[in-house]
Amino acid sequence: MERLRASNLAVELLENILVRLPVKSVIRFKCVEKSWSSLFENPSFIAKHHRHSCSITNPSYLIMSQDDSGGDIIIMSLLHPPHNDIDDTQVHIVDMNIRFDTNLISMRFLRPNICACINGIFCIGGSFSGGFDGFFLWNPAIRQYKVVPYPTLHYPPALHFFNTDHNFAFGYDYNSNDYKLVRIVNYGRDYNTFVHVYTLSTDSWRQKINTAIDLSNIAFLSTFDEKYLNGVYYILKDTDKHGRVFNCAVILSFHMTNEVFRILSLPEFRSVPHQIKTFAVFNECLAFIFYNKRRTTMEANLEIWVMRESGVQESWTKQLVVGPLLGIRNPLGFAKNGELLLLVCDDDQTIALYNIGSQEIKILQFRDFPNAFNTSEAISYVESLVSFKGDNVVQY
Length: 396
Hints:
Shape: globular
InterPro entries: F-box-assoc_dom_typ1, F-box-assoc_interact_dom, F-box-like_dom_sf, F-box_dom, SCF_F-box_component
Protein name: F-box domain-containing protein
Helix content: 10-25%
Pfam family, one: FBA_1
Strand order of the largest sheet: 5-6-7-8-28
Domain F-box: 7-45
Strand content: 35-45%
Domain F-box associated beta-propeller type: 119-387
Number of helices: 4
Structural class: mainly beta
Largest sheet: 5 strands, antiparallel
Number of strands: 28
């Protein structure tokens, strides 16, 4: 009995040591012992390892661009903001270039977009030249990606793919420990809205029949106006079907566990010309940034609202007002320490950190900054050991 207790204690101690290692070290230690390899693939260990990484790691921020030649290379770069005052404005970019296997992908990416990054997994989607949207789940830490299979689609008579509105949502179901990709297809007022749900564990799609709310009057607004937070995916939508009336915008949310849609109102802001609006995460709460820039003076102002209680639209609170600032193209989101990431247009495009407390701007200096840089969001990323199973999985 004492020997068994000692053995269990040794295993527990070993696991507590291994869970503190970076992903690259864990992968390297897989070949040490067969039991270690099995441990590293255990979902419980993977979750524990990621929780520990999140607790001690200042996240990287992934930015995205596409090759100027229009090829199918997606340029991924990891942005590491300064971690303290000693580290000045020097920032290193780690290029994450990846070319997808052409045996699995018969059509070229045209408009790549990162739907979300959850537990170290990026969901990358894009329209193909053949007219269909394809998706890939990608874990850069373990250098692996999976091509999501196409859903079986049934188009209404006399309608073409390009006459439809599409939305997608990628999220994590905490109850089932599973990942889901939701595809919403709107064929217009005269037809039903179709909702398909892909589940990673089964590697298959299913059609969701009951949406509980009428989605037919809601139109696609922007591929970048979306945010995943704590099991819920939020999408900024328009209710006039033409994307013209700003005051008609609403938030469509989808809960990944119970698969329920809800419609939430935006906070009551003062509408101004040339307004840009985007989601963000501020102190683990859903935030909304209203941004306007005067064309005459190029001064920008930002109004930031926070939803204090998840899903409760009455809890919208104006957090702060930033500006006027010069040379700001658009906000990218908040860093973990609460600083605001901004895309800056001076002689060249770069990124700045705005300290909310001191109201100071720090321009970040990059080496080998991509010439084709074009983004509207910086996505928080912490590496993980989550891997993919089944068909169409590529290790590179």
